[in-house]
């Protein structure tokens, strides 16, 4: 099944991509084993990162902040997709969230 997601590379603006949903493709986009995080209030959106990005010294991509304090550093390429919390499936990012997350990830500092 083809799904759409936002790919965010270090020092680049997000781009909308379409790909076949598979673990292998998710791993290919983030360059290794995946870690799924949900740092935002939207529970229908997953942020997928390389789980060993910090350990492997991947390039710094974005910083998550709260009230001006750094909470986490996201390393390497980031993929934002939709989440079906009932089935646990990875799905397309909801259409109404594409603009929101494109705008949010234009900046280096991401307020959560």
Short description:
By secondary structure, the chain is an alpha+beta fold. Helices cover 16% and strands 45% of the residues.
Keywords:
112 residues; alpha+beta; 6-stranded antiparallel β-sheet; 3-stranded mixed β-sheet; 2 helices; 9 strands; 16% helix
Structure explained in plain terms:
- The protein has helices at residues 23-30, 95-104, and strands at residues 2-8, 15-20, 34-37, 45-50, 60-66, 69-75, 78-84, 89-91, 109-111.
- With 112 residues, the protein is an alpha+beta fold.
- It is 16% helix and 45% strand.
- The protein contains 2 helices and 9 strands, in the order E-E-H-E-E-E-E-E-E-H-E.
- Strands 1, 2, 3, 4, 7 and 8 form a 6-stranded antiparallel sheet that branches. The protein has a 3-stranded mixed sheet with strand order 6-5-9, with no helix packed on it.
- The protein starts with a strand and ends with a strand.
| Major β-sheet profile | 6 strands, antiparallel
- Beta percentage is 35-45%
Measured distance between first and last alpha carbons: 31 Å
Low-confidence segments, given as residue ranges, are none
Give me the secondary-structure category.
alpha+beta
Helix fraction bin: 10-25%
Oligomer kind: single chain
Rg, alpha carbons: 13 Å
> How many helical elements?
2
- The average pLDDT score comes to 96
| Strand segment count | 9
């Amino acid at each position: 099944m083809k799904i759409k997601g936002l790919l965010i590379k270090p020092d680049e603006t997000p781009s909308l991509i379409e790909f076949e949903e598979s673990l292998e493709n998710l791993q290919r986009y983030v360059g290794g084993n995946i870690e799924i995080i949900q740092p935002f209030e939207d529970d229908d959106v997953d942020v997928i990162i390389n789980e060993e990005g910090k350990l492997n010294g991947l390039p710094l991509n974005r910083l998550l902040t709260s009230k001006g304090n750094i909470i986490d550093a996201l390393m390497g390429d980031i993929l934002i997709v939709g989440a079906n919390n009932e089935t646990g499936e990875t799905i397309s990012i909801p259409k109404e969230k594409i603009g929101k997350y494109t705008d949010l990830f234009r900046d280096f500092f991401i307020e959560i």
